[in-house]
Amino acid sequence: MWHFPKVAAIACLIGLSACVSSYSAANPKTPDEQIPVANVPTEGSSQNPTGLLADLPESTPNRELLAQSWDSYRQRFIQSDGRVIDYEASDRSTSEGQAYALLRAVLINDPATFALTLNWSENNLQRQVGGKPTDSLWAWKWGRKEDGNWGVIDSNFASDGDIDAITALILASRRWHQPKYLELAKLKLQDLWNLSTISKTQGKRYLLPGPVAAFVPDASTLYLNPSYFAPYAFRIFAQVDPQHDWLSLVDSSYQVLEDSANLSKVGLPSDWVALNTKTGQYQTLPASSTLKSLYSFDSYRVWWRLSLDAAWFNSPQAQRYLVTSTQHLQKLWSKQSRLPARIDLQGKPLVDYEATSQYAMLYAAMQLVEPAIAQELLVKKILPQYKQGIWGDQSAYYTQNLAWLGLLPPKTIPQRLLK
Question: Is the pLDDT of residue 2 over 90?
């Protein structure tokens, strides 16, 4: 069977976004000669930004920017074959990056880019042993191997990427009337449930960040990543896969989010937490672990994911959490009009720099909680970083995705896609 490295060895691997800075000092890289970047050919309404614009309601805030930035992203970060390139990490590709492209493509109604990205992912990220597929989830890391060839470098999966990809597939099946996308989503849901969820004390089931061998260090401990929890996605999964209790993951997700926030004196979510399933107590991860318990680049996504649950499914749990756990950031913003990119559990800033990705994810939450702060974040921090289709550094793939997803109003999504 599978041989998985220990948690310490794969920590930086599965925590895909933890080491990404939206203010990277690195110069943009030129793609390798073997993998030239070209504009993704599209058709129909997706031929150009004007066509994409027509698919967003006229009332959509920053409508032109959203269309232009997606078009720029396609040209800059997506190869002509559908591979998404992370220039800040040796031109690698990840399941997370492929999934973000799928999600953005379906949200803005770009079926051609969706199909290309999906095709590359299915053909290149398949998890195998001895040349035979083991399941339908995606290997999280693909790039240049030690022998100089390109291919899968780490065949472990990262559940956030698979969750986003499955969500995109379900929405795409409804938006473009493509039953094949739904069938693939259902296939992936079986493997996600079997390989990335675990039932513990009192029958509670939890979402793991990846393989059991990597994130269950002993019989009574789980290592969890709160930013992977996607209650809105679990509600959508329950609609198409009644054989599994996906709504139980909604409950456990909010339980972990709410209870683990107590680890922070200021109530912030943490990149990583440990749960003792016997006592129900939450702990920080060991100091020896490369996974860290602090508020940083992973945690930002909590604001966006819960804002979707609040906006799409009127979740009172999401609304309550967003009101409560953003209090410290609201106070910091009101006092100094800036937020550090990393904050420890005591509420102490760990760095002097800021992160556009944080501002964009928080913007999504503030739109629901404190619209005045949302507008300030937009005007003072997000829009000033946008130039000619790109936020900040030309090579910052993570920032481009979080900025775009945070700015896209959830209500622009047709309700028929959510039911």
Answer: no
- Write the DSSP symbol of residue 410: G
> What CA–CA distance (Å, rounded) separates 43 from 29?
29
Render pLDDT for 273-282 as a digit per residue (tens, 0 to 9).
999 999 999 9
Say how many residues make up the chain: 419
Do 160 and 173 contact (CB within 8 A), yes or no? no
For the chain, what is the mean pLDDT?
89
The torsion region of residue 236 among left (phi > 0), alpha (psi -120 to 50) and beta comes to alpha
Cα–Cα distance, 306 to 368 (Å, whole number): 10
Query: What would the pLDDT profile of 346-364 be if each residue is shown by its tens digit?
Result: 999 999 999 999 999 999 9
Rounded distance between C-alpha atoms, residue 206 and residue 96, angstroms: 20
HSE toward the beta carbon, residue 208, CA cutoff 13 A: 24
> How far apart, in whole angstroms, are the C-alpha atoms of residue 252 and residue 231?
10
Closest CA to 360 of 297, 284, 417: 297
Cβ neighbours of residue 76 closer than 8 Å, sequence gap 6 or more = 37, 389, 390, 394
| Residue 81 · residue 146 · CB < 8 Å | no
The model's pLDDT over 138-169, given as tens digits with 9 standing for 90+, comes to: 999 999 999 999 999 999 999 999 999 999 99
Cβ proximity of 409 and 60 under 8 Å? yes
pTM over 0.85: yes
Residue 395's SS3 state is: coil
Tokens of 400: 């481009």
Q: How far is CA 378 from CA 199, 295, 348, 357, 375, in A?
A: 41, 21, 24, 12, 5
Residue 263 has pLDDT above 90, yes or no: yes
- Enumerate residues 6+ apart whose C-beta is below 8 A from 335: none
Between the CA of residue 380 and those of 55, 62, 165, 222, 339, what are the distances in Å?
Answer: 28, 15, 32, 39, 12
How many angstroms separate the CA atoms of 176 and 115, rounded? Answer: 11
Q: Tell me: pLDDT of 24 over 90.
A: no
Active site residues: 96, 160
